[in-house]
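Review box. Two proteins, two foldings.
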Amino acid sequence: MSAIIAVMNHKGGVGKTTTTLNMASAFAAGAKSVLIIDMDPQSNAATGLGLDAKSISKGSYELVLGDAKIPDVALETDLPNVSLIPATFQLAALSSVSPDEEDPEFWLRESLQEDATEYDYILIDCPPSFGILSLNALVAAQKVIVPVQSESFAIAGLQQMEKSINDIRLEAEHDLDFRILMTLSDQNQKLHKLVNQEVRAHFKEQVFETSIPVEPKIAESAFLGRPVVVHSPNVRGAQSYVRACAECMQWIEGGERLSHQQAIVNGLKQWLNDDSITAANEPVHLDDQPIAPSHSPAHPIHVESEPNSFRIGIRNGVILALALTAGMALAFLGM
C-alpha cells in the first residue's frame, strides 16, 4: 500500500514545493518508487524538476475529475523512480466547484484508489490556501508534512492548520497524522530561535528533529530545475533534507533512522556517478527554447565550488541602486 503524504501550509513561501521535491528525490534515492502530484495551479513542481511546463497538456486536473487515470497523466523524470503528475492552469477552475456537486473533497481519494499501489510514496504538493484543492489532498492523504518558516506568525498559522486537520479527522472520519518541518531557519537570529523553541514546546514529538536552514543553494537549485539534494548534495540544506527524509521514513515505515539515511546517501552517490542524471540544468531563458542539460562527468559525492549567481545579482543590484541614487542627487542639485 502506498504511503500518501500531503505537504501543506495555508501560508505561501514556506518551502512546500521545495520540501516536496527534495523529500521525493531522497525517497527515490533510498530505493523507493515515488509519485508527486502537483495540486498547485502555479505548476512549480514541473519547473522544479526541469520539465517544460508549456508542453504539459494534462495532469492533476483530469486525475481529480476522474477523466484520466494515473498512467495517463504521470510523467517520468530523469531521476530514477520519480514520476510527476503536473498541474495545469485548468486546475484553478476546481477552486470554484459548485456546492451542489456530490462530495467533491473525495474526488482525488477515489481517483487514487485503483492505481496508487504501484508507488511506495505519493507526495501531494498543495496550494498556499485552504480550499477544495487542499481539502482533496488532506482527504486522500494518510500523513501531512507542514513546512513552517521561523517567523512571527508561525504559531497562529500552525494552530489554524491543526484545526483544519482535526476537522478532516472528524468530518471525513479520516485518521490523519501530521508532522511539522521547520524551514528557512537561521538559529543565529534570535526570533528564529524563539519561534523554533515555542513550536517544539507546544507540538513536541510532532516536530521533525531536523530543521532546514536558510541555504542559497536551495533557491539556486530550484531556478536550475533540480532538487538541491541532487544539485548540491554537500551543502547544509541538502544534508538537512536527507536527514529529514530519513526521519519521515522512520515515522512511516519504522526501522532505524540511520539505516534509512545511509540508504539515501548511497543512492545519491550512485546518481552522481550516472551520466544520465545531471547535477544541474541551465536556466530556461524567456526568449529561448529550453536548453538541453549538460551532463556532468562521473564523480564521487563532491560538488566543485562554482560562481554564486545570486551574489552576482545582488552585487549588480547594489551597483545599480547606487548609480540611481547618485543620479537623483545630481538632478536635485541642478534644480
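Next protein.
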Amino acid sequence: MQALTLPRFGGPDAFTLSDLEMPSPGSGEVLVRVHATSINPLDYQVRRGDYADLVPLPAITGHDVSGVVEAVGTGVSAFRPGDAVWYTPQIFGGPGSYAEYHVASEAIVGHKPAGLTHLEAASLSLVGGTVWEALIGRAGLRVGESILIHGAAGGVGHIAVQVAKATGAFVIATASDYNADFVGSLGADVVIDYRAEDYVAAVNRETAGAGVDVVLDTIGDDTLEKSPHVLAQLGRIVSIVDIAKPQNLVEAWGRNASYHFVFTRQNRGKLDELSTLVQRGLLKPHVGASYPLAGIPEAHALLERPRNGLRGKIGIAVTEKD
C-alpha cells in the first residue's frame, strides 16, 4: 500500500510517499480501505515534533478515517467486509490515517452516515468528536442556554455552531467579516467581527450584561483570561487548545466559573450521536479544500499559514476521488 510516512520531524517537506506492506487485522480489529482523511492542527503539531516523546519515528500520522471495511479479525461482530465506516484512529496509539489501509479496534469504529461522502465524513470524525465531548460531555450545554464560540469558521468552530444550535442554544460566534455570512448560514444567532470590535464589549451588549453560559475556546492566546469577562455566574469555559502562557483567572473565580480542557477520546458512541444529527439534517461538515494523498504536504502548509482564508476542513482523497 501507499502511505505518507514521517521519517523525521520538521516542516511539510518532512513527509515521504512510501510503499509499505498492507497491515492485517488482529482479534477484535477491522482492516479498512481508507477512502478519505483530513488535516487538523494536531497533524502539523505532531509533524513538527510538538509530541516527539509520544510519536516514535518513522511514523504514519493522521487522525481521521472514512472508508470501507476490507477484512475483519476474530471476534468482530459489529462490522463485515463492505461496510462503510468512519472513525478517529487511536491518538498516539499506533499508525495513523495517511495511508491506503488502516487497522483499528472495532470499539472506536462507527457506521458512516449515509448522507455524507467519504471526504465529508473524514472531515467530521475528529472535530465532531471533540465538539461533542466539549459541549455535551464537559460543558453540559442545555436547551435555552447561550454560548460564545471562538473561531467559528474553522474546522472545530463550524461544527460547534451546528451542534450548539441542534442542542437548542443561543449561539454567539466570532469570525472575520469575510466569514460572517458563512458562519451565519451555519445557524449562529450573532456573528462578531473580532477584527472590528472587542468581543467582550460585543457579547455584553448582545446579552444585556448577563453574559453567556458557555465559552468554547478554539484559538488560544489570551482567551482563557478574557473570556470570563463575558461569562454568566456559574458559567463554563471549555478549551481545546494547549496553552503554555500563564493567564490571570481571577475574574473566573469571581464568576464561580468552571474550566474544562479537552483532548478528545475515541469511542463509537460520539460517532453515533453525530450520525443522528447528520441524518436529521442538523449537521454537515464543510470541506473548504481537498488534496490527494501525495498532496498532504501542501495541505499542511496551507492549514499552518496564518489567515489562510479557509472555511471548515481540508479533506484528503486517499484512494478515490470523492
